[in-house]
Amino acid sequence: MTDKGKKRIGVIGIIVENREEAAPHVNRILGEYGEIILGRMGIPNRERGINVISLIIEATTDEVGALTGKLGRLPHVRVRSNLV
């Protein structure tokens, strides 16, 4: 198996700035990739008007790229990933 097809453990951080508009789209996309998500934690920060979602994943780099790419194209959503 090449490195590209090798599953890796990682963390994806998602910041949602307009929950009412973005959350349904974020949740739909996360549901599509549910098989690679090992854990999920969401924390609202009402004072700043943002919500932070942290994902623990096990996936190939292609899967991570597809997930983060879809999320990153959504308005009011910022996403970063880190794999080991």
TrEMBL record:
InterPro entries: Acetolactate_synth/TF_NikR_C, ACT-like_dom_sf, FeFe-hyd_TM1266. It holds the Pfam family TM1266-like. Gene3D superfamilies: ACT-like. Chain A, domain 2. NCBIfam families: hyd_TM1266 (TIGR03959). This is CopG family transcriptional regulator. It comes from Desulfonema ishimotonii.
